[in-house]
Structure formats: structure tokens, C-alpha cells
């Protein structure tokens, strides 16, 4: 992001690689001259010696057009997934530079779409644009490249402010702090200080050995419905009409809804009878859905299923993924 003629930040094509070549913590021109025998301005980028086992050599691929992440759609997630598939055997790992606004949605979607993933995928960005003097983006990018180039963590992750987190466990938690992302119900996979500390016991490994593939179809017919006191029947009914296939229902506390609102509970029941999948998650920052109260059990009786401790981003994108699985029947999808 760079300031445009209006004085606001916007993506600028072709600006990133020339800038990275000027940052000594992100590119070592002497290594290029000594080992690559090619013009420095045509070479890949190379990290300086960071004390890790391998020197990281990396190439930047830039999308056209560049997008602010607020403009992302399902189609952009599919594009990224297919690009990783096309380049899967050319690189040891992948770093995706992404705006922060929808980063957790992209990380969650890719975590489901990249099936049987065997390589590290790190998504990162910055609160202060990389071209600004005080940017946090340079350190985030450096740490992401070190992780992707030296550690086999075969998940889609987000790296921000010296933490590597499972992507589908993250939320953006601040618009103004550099510690902008957190994982409310799961500790980071990696913490970065003087040393890099990996919690290998928490790193996900696929239970079977299978070829990497991309599920490149997602259902667009999903949505988030947040309950609030005195929500109208008309609002709920309109939300549940065709073509909706899946709903993330954000409820109070441990998964509670007004049990005295038989009208909206009946709408939920009718929708589930039609095959709509409604998943109950809490509006709270942390914790999980537990049907320990009458107000929560009323949703279970209406056919709503528990989303446990999933984030809204993870639940929405998983619904989109699951509903696109044509080979599964409704019972399997639920």
C-alpha cells in the first residue's frame, strides 16, 4: 500500500520488488553476485544469513490487479489456491502478502481448500504499510520467509507480531495495535523471540498419506446471522429464504437464543427441514457453545448444530467448503 494522489492508501503495482531489494534485512545482493552469476536486478530475492539451516531464496508473484483485501471475494480465494497448486512442486513453502481486513477469512478458506497439504503456507501483512518508515510489515515478512523456508509446518497459518497462528483459529482484534491478530481458543504454533520456538505437538499432520489437491469450488450461498434482543421474525425469515444453504448463527453466551421466541425457533426448524445447515457459534470472543441451558437446548431441538469454539470466519468458510462437496449427502455435510 502507498498513498495515492488523494492522500489515501491504495495498492500500487510494481512497487514491491524494487523496494525489497533496498532493505538489507530482506535481500542480500552480495550473495546474488557471488553465487548466482546473474544481474542483481534480474535475480530472485535472497534473505541474508539468519542463522537458520538454509538460506531463503524467494520470488515475488504479483497479481493483476492488486486488491485491497476488503475487495476480496470467494473467487480470489480460489485463484490463490489454484496458484499454489500450479507452483506446488517448485517451492518449499509459500508466503501470501495480504491486507489485514479479510486475512482471517482467506486463511480459513485456504485451510479447507488445500487438501492433504504437505508444505508451509504463511499469510502475513502489516498494520503500517511496508513502504512507511515505521512499518511492521518488514519484520512480519522476514519472519514469514524464515518459517516458510526452514520449517515444515504443513498448515495454512497467519504470522503477525512474532506469532504464527493456525489460520482458521484467528481473528483480527485491533485496528490500531501492531498485535492485530489473535487466536482466542488456541495457543500459537510458533512464538518468535531471540529464538524461534515451535510447538510441534500442536502442528497439524494429515492422518493419511495422499496427494496434495485443491478443492476449487465453494458455495456462495452462506451467511452470518447475529442474534440481538427483539430481532424480528421478518428479519430471520428473510435471511433463511432461498438460495441460502448454510447459516452461521451467532448467539449469546454459551450458544443461547431466546427460548420464548417460538416464532424464530420454528423458522430455524423449517429451514433445517429443507436442508439448510445452521451452525451455532458464540458471539463471545473466546469459549465454546455448550447446550447446558434451556435457551441453548431449544436450538438443538430446532435442528441447529453446534460450532463448538469456531471463529465466525472459520465457520463461514467451512460451511462454504462443505456445502460445495457434491459427493456428500446432507447427513455427511452436517
How does the SSE layout of this entry go?
Layout: E1 2-3, E2 9-10, H1 16-20, H2 29-35, E3 45-46, E4 57-58, H3 74-86, E5 93-97, H4 103-113, E6 114-115, E7 120-124, H5 137-150, E8 156-160, E9 163-166, E10 171-172, E11 181-182, E12 190-192, E13 196-198, E14 213-214, E15 222-226, H6 233-239, E16 246-251, H7 262-273, E17 277-282, H8 294-301, E18 305-306, H9 312-323, H10 330-333
Write a structural description.
One of its GO terms (biological process) is aspartate family amino acid metabolic process. GO terms for molecular function: asparaginase activity. Keywords: ANK repeat, Hydrolase, Repeat. Its EC number is 3.5.1.1. The active site is at 100. It is a single chain. The chain folds into two domains: 2-214, Rossmann fold (3-Layer(aba) Sandwich); 222-333, 3-Layer(aba) Sandwich (Rossmann fold). Helix 3 (74-86) packs across helix 4. With 334 residues, the chain is an alpha/beta fold. The longest helix is centred in the middle third of the chain and has 14 residues, at 137-150. Strand 7 (120-124), helix 5 (137-150) and strand 8 (156-160) form a beta-alpha-beta unit. The mean pLDDT is 95. 37% of the residues are buried. A six-stranded mixed beta sheet has the order 5-7-8-9-12-13, sandwiched between helices. The protein contains ten helices and 18 strands. 28% of the residues lie in helices and 18% in strands.
Amino acid at each position: 500500500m502507498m498513498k495515492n494522489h488523494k492522500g489515501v492508501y491504495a495498492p500500487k503495482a510494481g512497487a514491491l520488488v524494487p523496494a525489497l531489494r533496498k532493505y538489507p534485512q530482506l535481500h542480500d545482493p552480495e550473495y546474488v553476485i557471488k553465487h548466482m552469476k546473474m544481474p542483481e536486478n534480474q535475480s530472485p530475492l535472497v534473505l541474508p544469513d539468519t542463522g537458520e539451516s538454509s538460506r531463503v531464496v524467494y520470488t515475488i508473484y504479483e497479481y493483476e490487479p492488486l486488491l485491497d483485501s476488503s475487495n476480496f471475494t470467494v473467487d480470489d480465494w480460489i485463484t490463490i489456491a489454484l496458484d499454489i497448486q500450479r507452483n506446488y512442486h517448485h517451492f518449499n513453502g509459500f508466503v501470501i502478502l495480504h491486507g489485514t481486513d479479510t486475512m482471517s477469512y482467506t486463511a480459513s478458506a485456504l485451510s479447507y481448500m488445500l487438501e492433504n497439504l504437505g508444505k508451509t503456507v504463511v499469510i502475513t501483512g502489516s498494520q503500517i504499510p511496508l513502504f512507511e518508515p515505521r512499518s511492521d510489515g518488514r519484520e512480519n515478512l522476514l519472519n514469514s520467509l524464515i518459517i516458510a523456508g526452514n520449517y515444515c509446518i504443513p498448515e495454512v497459518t497467519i504470522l503477525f507480531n512474532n506469532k504464527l497462528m493456525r489460520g482458521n483459529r484467528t481473528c483480527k482484534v485491533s485496528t490500531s495495535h501492531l498485535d492485530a491478530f489473535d487466536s482466542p481458543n488456541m495457543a500459537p504454533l510458533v512464538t518468535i523471540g531471540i529464538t524461534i520456538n515451535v510447538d510441534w505437538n500442536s502442528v497439524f499432520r494429515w492422518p493419511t498419506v495422499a496427494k496434495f489437491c485443491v478443492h476449487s469450488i465453494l458455495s456462495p450461498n452462506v451467511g452470518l446471522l447475529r442474534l440481538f434482543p427483539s430481532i424480528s421474525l421478518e428479519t430471520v425469515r428473510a435471511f433463511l429464504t432461498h438460495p441460502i444453504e448454510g447459516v452461521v448463527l451467532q448467539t449469546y453466551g454459551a450458544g443461547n437464543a431466546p427460548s420464548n421466541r417460538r416464532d424464530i425457533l420454528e423458522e430455524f426448524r423449517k429451514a433445517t427441514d429443507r436442508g439448510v445447515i445452521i451452525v451455532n457459534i458464540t458471539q463471545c470472543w473466546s469459549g465454546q457453545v455448550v447446550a447446558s441451558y434451556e435457551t441453548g437446548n431449544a436450538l438443538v431441538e430446532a435442528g441447529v448444530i453446534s460450532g463448538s469454539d469456531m471463529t465466525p470466519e472459520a465457520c463461514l468458510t467451512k460451511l462454504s467448503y462443505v456445502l460445495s462437496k457434491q459427493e456428500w449427502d446432507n447427513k455427511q455435510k452436517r
